[in-house]
Design a protein that fits this description.
Helix content: 55-70%
Order of helices and strands: HHHHHH
Strand content: under 5%
Structural class: mainly alpha
Distance between the termini: 40 Å
Radius of gyration: 18 Å
Length: 99
């Protein structure tokens, strides 16, 4: 952590530097939530003919993972087809082009 702060301080001292640091809380999830998110990523990848890594990156970039975390209580009760449709729609609303 100290190394990171030193790096940030050096960057802030650079001429014409505009440095912004965002601090976010770490979130921990239950095993059930983690297993659901992993399954949703896998099913999204299958449906859209992506690798797991491609699907994960896409879902992170376009807020699909955030949606799955925030809406777990409702989403995990739906069918796999509904999960995939929902996260596809969320990503599309956030600028994604798949679906």
């Amino acid at each position: 952590m100290k190394d990171r702060l030193d790096t940030i301080n050096r960057m802030a001292d650079a001429p014409e530097a505009d440095v912004t640091v965002a601090l976010t809380a770490k979130v921990s999830h239950s095993r059930e939530v983690i297993e659901y998110i992993v399954a949703a990523i896998s099913e999204f990848a299958k449906r859209h003919l992506l690798t797991i890594k491609e699907a994960s990156n896409y879902l992170l970039r376009f807020k699909g993972i955030d949606f799955l975390e925030q809406c777990y209580a409702a989403e995990h009760t739906l069918s796999v087809n509904d999960w995939v449709e929902d996260i596809t729609a969320v990503c599309k609303r956030n600028g994604g082009c798949i679906g």
